[in-house]
Write a structure and sequence with these properties.
Mean pLDDT: 87
CATH topology of the largest domain: Glucose Permease (Domain IIA)
CATH class of the largest domain: Mainly Beta
Shape: globular
Number of domains: 2
Order of helices and strands: EEEEHEEEEEEEEHEHEEEEEEE
Structural class: mainly beta
């Protein structure tokens, strides 16, 4: 369910071979001027995009994000996740176009386009040959700093090597290329070839939490509060919903016929943990509860699709506006990092 982009130990983009080492910051990193990073994607965090994976700080087989949570993973070959993943809502949003932006002024050192947008489970042959990043761009910011942008949409890369770009300039569009299973931007920051977590920077005295000088610009950092788990997509369907259809942008019609055979509320969530509870409730035009279900999470899941509803009894549903509420709650031994809730609406007429 997760983007399994490995660290770029040997990542080829546009003929350029980039070499990187394991996570860390070398002794010279603190001596060089650090980057000041803007948001690398044209979206509203928490509304139209969500961070679903952070850099993995665990040196062993376990996982640990910068806040000592588990919103990260080991990628292909057991390599630590080396970037920040910004997910967009679904395939429909991807097709409409969400811009990937340069996070800081720089020079393009590598770019690749032409890789297909496809869920890695459906890829044939599977992604290989150093193309796990898919379509992407690498920027050199000077003083040993570099950013890399992966999984861009085929045909969208708008820059070429040696081109100078300014912070906020469009590099391409969010896509589904490379070694991934959902449309998102994977951004890696490196200094002197070493992965740097932009939430930490090069200096941190404590084992958890933000570093002394995060790389994000203050307004950007304020817009990116730590989120371990999130309800990021939901809607109504008139049938038993299929996850693939929902994730591709289906079930987007909020106007439904009163004669539909069932009224079903569905939701997609990231990073749910054992002990969490998910409550799905539907309220009718009169404010009364039409359906309410509680789903106890019995195992950790990077991504979960869930639904509940009620079949039609009689010839028609009452006309009017229906409200669906999806609520992720903490449970015994597994409190949600922040209670996550989403409300969606549909009109039956």
């Amino acid at each position: 369910m997760r983007d399994r982009t490995p660290p770029f130990r040997r990542q080829v983009l546009g003929g350029l071979i980039l070499l990187a080492t394991a996570f860390g910051a070398g002794p010279s990193a603190a001596a060089d001027p650090a980057l000041a990073l803007a948001l690398p994607i044209d979206c509203v965090p928490g509304e139209t995009c969500w961070i679903v994976n952070y850099v993995d700080h665990d040196p062993g087989p376990g996982v640990r994000d910068y806040a000592c949570g588990q919103a990260t993973y080991n990628g292909a070959g057991g390599n630590a996740h080396n970037g920040t993943d910004f997910a967009i809502r679904d395939g429909r949003a991807m097709r409409e176009g969400v811009a990937v932006l340069a996070a800081a002024d720089g020079v393009v050192t590598a770019a690749r386009d032409g890789e297909a947008d496809a869920d890695l489970k459906a890829s044939a042959p599977p992604v290989s040959g150093g193309k796990e990043c898919g379509n992407g761009v690498v920027l050199d910011h000077g003083n040993g700093w570099e950013t890399q942008y992966c999984h861009l949409r085929r045909g969208s890369v708008a820059v070429a090597p040696r081109r100078k770009v300014r912070a906020g300039e469009r590099l391409g569009l969010v896509g589904l290329s490379g070694f991934t299973q959902f449309p998102h931007l994977h951004m890696t920051v490196r200094h002197a070839g070493k992965t740097i977590d932009p939430f930490v920077g090069t200096i941190r005295s404590s084992g958890c939490g933000l570093g002394e000088a995060p790389l994000w610009r203050p307004p950007t950092l304020a817009a990116l509060p730590y989120t371990l788990n999130v309800v990021y997509h939901a809607g109504f369907a008139d049938e038993k919903p299929a996850a693939a259809k929902a994730r591709d942008g289906g079930y987007a019609d909020s106007a439904l016929a009163r004669s539909i055979p069932a009224l079903v509320l569905w939701a997609d969530l990231f990073n749910v943990r054992t002990g969490h509870r998910i409550v799905l409730s539907i309220r009718g035009p009169d404010g009364q509860t039409v359906s309410e279900s509680t789903y106890p999470v019995e195992k950790d899941q990077a991504r979960l699709f869930i639904f509940a509803g009620k079949p039609l009894k009689g010839s028609q549903w009452p006309a009017g506006d229906y409200e669906g509420v999806i609520r992720l709650e903490g449970g015994d031994g597994a409190p949600a990092a922040r209670p996550s809730e989403m409300t969606v609406r549909a009109t039956l007429r």
